[in-house]
């Protein structure tokens, strides 16, 4: 029976899943490796056995101590009178209601009574075995509550050494740290600086000013090291250390008043650089419920956790920056009293700078529109430093924005700001719109409009004109084109054109509102400058109304020279572009510019000449078929007169404009002769170019300009006196002939108050004193002069000898 039971038990025992290695597999493994495995297994078994033996020994010792310390029998006490009365009362109670079994059990319990049943409140024990009873409790306390932790060692096998005796295996033991120990070490390291800070704060109460400054410098250096260590850890491995961003962001709440401002500024700038480095090049979208429930790989899950942590910390960081700016704007002390009110402006400037950097560095990332909404009102801030930073940031954003999405969002917010403040904004806010990149795309739009548009078939036409197989191929082709477009990551031209068109519509809406409702505001110059810049993109429907408004503004006389020039430039830019189909003769605008030219002398702004040169190019050169010869000659004469009263670079630009006009109107060479053409005489004070009889005068100013100190002015004056030939010895060199008047104005600019080009240095060779005078004297006089000079030299030598 016993053998059958043993057999049945052995059959019921489950077999080990780990199979023994086959002989062929054993041959493949080296003997050294098998020996090392065997050694590792034996070491682990020995360690486990040691642990078990130690625990059993401790438990046996504890049980033995508890068994030895048997409780003493109950001591005899003298009964109190109250206790005797209680016993008499209990004995007098009837026992009929109790059963015999209960009485036996109670008597047995009374015989085996222990120290638990003792009445401790009656009196103290007679015996003095207090020390022995306390040792019993102490022995129980010595018993370990948990298993003692032993250091786990990992055996690292090194390359074996071979000598005469054979192969000697090499191994090294390394203590393996668990995850809990690592976390405890990190917590201890994190608590150390806090303890130091608390001690410094407590000890800083009775320090002198010098000691407090030293303590502050030491604290700042410690904070800097902490910020640097956290930042380097995050940047080196952002996927694993994204939680450290929260710890770094928590330093924005620094409570030490002596270093709070410095630490917060350092943390703001550090977090800005960290987000610029670790932010991905795509927009992170929130996960759907189905995506969250689906099982993914470990790498995908790590990426999701990183993106989620990055988005949350980035959002909190932006909120902190915005709150810092709001505290400064609202003149309130929030969060804590550690930062003084005077320091909030410095913190706000750093916060604005961080937002501007993120605006330019991460235009594709999340919360970009929120940054735009926060920064656009600051463009109108009274503090010039803050408004300057914001305006410069948006100018750079417009220049680098190729797709137009960020520009459209910014223009919308600016339009709302101008309207909400009732057009009471700074002109710099509207001048930032001049940096919009829309000119290049508009040329592509014209080309697309002239090309034949492709006609797309709807479903009915497809079913009617295509077979089933053709429809199938068509669908597959459209799907493939869509995938290729997504792979190239290229936006369609139609979408880009649509965005730019909407942006321009909002810009022109802002401009037209100001022209209609706030013509006397300080925004009018910026509006006229913007209209002159985007005039070639204005829709034809607005041309008539816009020309009437600009003409009324010029005739009112309330505009400055620069504003009037912008109005004229806008009109002629429109007429030279899409407005060439309109049958309009802007004679009044020609008269206004002709009347304005004498006021643009060197005592006024020199930059106004640049606008004049652009107007002349649009008025005379591009519209030469609509301009009469009398008008062209009048402008040439007045420009020559003006060239005597302006700075050298303006003179170069005006002479170059005269050259272009003489090429467009060859008969202007009448002005180079002294003969009178027709009747009448020249009226220089008349402001009508058609009736001033410019053909009866000559360009005598060119002879004066031939003796100008500027070499380029002299060259151009000589060139015009000879009739401005394009070929021959009198022709200009390539550098001057191929550049427009506006380019020559900028090339020879004198903004730095220096000669451009610089003046040549005089020769180093010295001339004799009387070379010029000796030629005028006779031979006798020359001999007399030489004799006097020799006698003087002899007298001087004799005097030296006497001395």
Automatic annotation (TrEMBL):
Keywords for the protein's UniProt record, in alphabetical order: Coiled coil, Nucleus
Q: Which GO terms describe its cellular component?
A: nucleolus
Which InterPro entries does the record cross-reference, listed alphabetically? ARM-type_fold, CCAAT-binding_factor, Noc3_N, Nucleolar_cplx-assoc_3
Q: Which residues form a coiled coil?
A: 311-338, 459-495
Give GO MF terms, alphabetically. chromatin binding
Q: Which residues form the CCAAT-binding factor domain?
A: 564-716
User: What does the sequence similarity comment in the record state about its family?
Assistant: Belongs to the CBF/MAK21 family.
Q: Matching PANTHER family, A to Z? A: NUCLEOLAR COMPLEX PROTEIN 3, NUCLEOLAR COMPLEX PROTEIN 3 HOMOLOG
- For this entry, the protein name equals Nucleolar complex protein 3 homolog
* Organism this protein belongs to: Collichthys lucidus (Big head croaker)
Organism placement in taxonomy: Eukaryota, Metazoa, Chordata, Craniata, Vertebrata
């Amino acid at each position: 029976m016993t053998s059958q039971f043993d057999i049945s038990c052995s059959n019921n025992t489950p077999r080990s899943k780990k199979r023994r290695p086959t002989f062929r597999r054993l041959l493949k493994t080296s003997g050294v490796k098998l020996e090392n495995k065997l050694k590792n297994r034996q070491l682990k078994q020995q360690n486990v056995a040691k642990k078990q033996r130690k625990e059993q020994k401790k438990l046996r010792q504890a049980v033995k101590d508890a068994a030895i310390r048997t409780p003493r029998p109950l001591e005899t006490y003298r009964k109190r009178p109250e206790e005797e009365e209680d016993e008499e009362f209990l004995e007098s109670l009837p026992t009929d209601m109790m059963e015999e079994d209960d009485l036996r059990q109670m008597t047995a319990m009374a015989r085996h009574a222990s120290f638990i049943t003792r009445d401790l409140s009656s009196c103290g024990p007679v015996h003095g075995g207090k020390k022995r009873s306390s040792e019993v409790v102490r022995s129980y306390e010595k018993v370990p509550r948990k298993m003692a932790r032993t250091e786990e060692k990992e055996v690292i096998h090194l390359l074996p050494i071979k000598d005469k005796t054979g192969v000697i295996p090499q191994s090294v033991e390394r203590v393996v740290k668990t995850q809990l120990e690592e976390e405890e070490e990190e917590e201890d390291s994190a608590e150390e600086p806090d303890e130091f800070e608390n001690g410094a704060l407590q000890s800083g109460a009775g320090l002198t000013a010098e000691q407090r400054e030293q303590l502050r410098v030491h604290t700042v250096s410690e904070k800097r090291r902490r910020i640097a260590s956290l930042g380097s850890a995050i940047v080196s491995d952002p996927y694993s250390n994204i939680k450290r961003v929260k710890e770094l962001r928590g330093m924005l709440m620094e409570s030490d008043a002596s270093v709070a401002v410095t630490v917060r500024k350092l943390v703001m700038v550090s977090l800005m650089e960290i987000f610029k480095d670790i932010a991905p090049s795509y927009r992170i979208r929130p996960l759907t419920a189905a995506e969250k429930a689906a099982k993914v790989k470990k790498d995908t899950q790590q990426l999701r956790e990183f993106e989620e942590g990055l988005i949350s910390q980035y959002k909190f960081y932006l909120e902190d920056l915005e709150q810092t700016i709001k505290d400064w704007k609202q003149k309130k002390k929030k969060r804590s009293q550690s930062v003084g009110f005077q320091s909030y402006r410095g913190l706000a400037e750093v916060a604005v700078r961080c937002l501007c950097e993120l605006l330019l560095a991460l235009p594709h990332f999340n919360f970009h529109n929120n940054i735009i909404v926060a920064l656009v009102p600051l463009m109108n801030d009274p503090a010039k430093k803050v408004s300057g930073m914001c305006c410069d940031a948006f100018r750079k954003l417009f220049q680098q924005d190729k797709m137009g999405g960020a520009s459209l969002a910014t223009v919308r917010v600016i339009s709302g700001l101008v309207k909400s403040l009732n057009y009471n904004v700074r002109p710099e806010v509207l001048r930032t719109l001049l940096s919009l990149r829309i000119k290049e795309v508009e040329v592509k739009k014209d080309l697309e409009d002239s090309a034949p548009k492709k006609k797309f078939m709807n479903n009915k036409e497809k079913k009617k004109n295509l077979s089933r197989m053709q429809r199938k191929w068509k669908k597959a082709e459209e799907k493939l084109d869509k995938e290729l477009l997504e792979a190239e990551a290229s936006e369609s031209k139609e979408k880009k054109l649509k965005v730019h068109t909407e942006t321009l519509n909002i810009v022109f809406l802002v401009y037209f509102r100001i022209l209609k409702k706030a013509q006397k505001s300080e925004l009018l110059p910026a509006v006229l400058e913007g209209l002159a810049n985007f005039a070639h993109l204005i829709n034809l429907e607005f041309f008539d109304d816009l020309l009437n408004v600009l003409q009324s503004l010029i005739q009112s006389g309330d505009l400055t020279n620069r504003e009037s020039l912008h109005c004229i430039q806008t009109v002629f830019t429109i007429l030279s572009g899409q407005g060439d189909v309109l049958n309009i003769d802007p004679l009044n605008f020609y008269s206004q510019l002709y009347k304005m030219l004498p006021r643009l002398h060197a005592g006024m702004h020199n930059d106004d000449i640049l606008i004049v040169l652009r107007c002349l190019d649009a008025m005379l050169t591009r519209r030469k078929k609509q301009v009469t010869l009398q008008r062209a000659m009048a402008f040439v004469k007045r420009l020559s007169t003006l060239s005597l009263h302006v700075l050298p670079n303006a003179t170069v630009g005006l002479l170059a404009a005269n050259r272009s006009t003489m090429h467009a109107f060859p008969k202007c060479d009448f002005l180079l002769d002294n003969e009178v053409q027709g009747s009448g005489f020249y009226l220089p004070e008349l402001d009508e170019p058609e009736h001033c009889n410019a053909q009866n005068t000559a360009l005598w100013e060119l002879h004066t300009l031939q003796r100008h100190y500027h070499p380029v002015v002299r060259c151009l004056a000589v060139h015009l006196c000879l009739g401005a030939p394009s070929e021959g010895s009198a022709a200009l060199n390539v550098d001057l002939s191929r550049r427009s008047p506006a380019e020559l104005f900028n090339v020879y600019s004198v903004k730095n108050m220096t000669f451009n080009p610089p003046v040549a240095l005089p020769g180093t060779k010295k001339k004799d004193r009387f070379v010029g005078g000796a030629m005028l004297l006779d031979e006798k006089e020359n001999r007399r002069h030489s004799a006097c000079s020799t006698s003087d030299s002899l007298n001087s030598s004799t005097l030296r000898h006497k001395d």
